[in-house]
Amino acid sequence: GAVVSQHPSRVICKSGTSVKIECRSLDFQATTMFWYRQFPKQSLMLMATSNEGSKATYEQGVEKDKFLINHASLTLSTLTVTSAHPEDSSFYICSARLNSGSADTQYFGPGTRLTVL
Amino acid sequence: QKEVEQNSGPLSVPEGAIASLNCTYSDRVSQSFFWYRQYSGKSPELIMSIYSNGDKEDGRFTAQLNKASQYVSLLIRDSQPSDSATYLCAVRNYGQNFVFGPGTRLSVLP
Question: What's the pLDDT score for residue B95?
Answer without folding.
Answer: 62
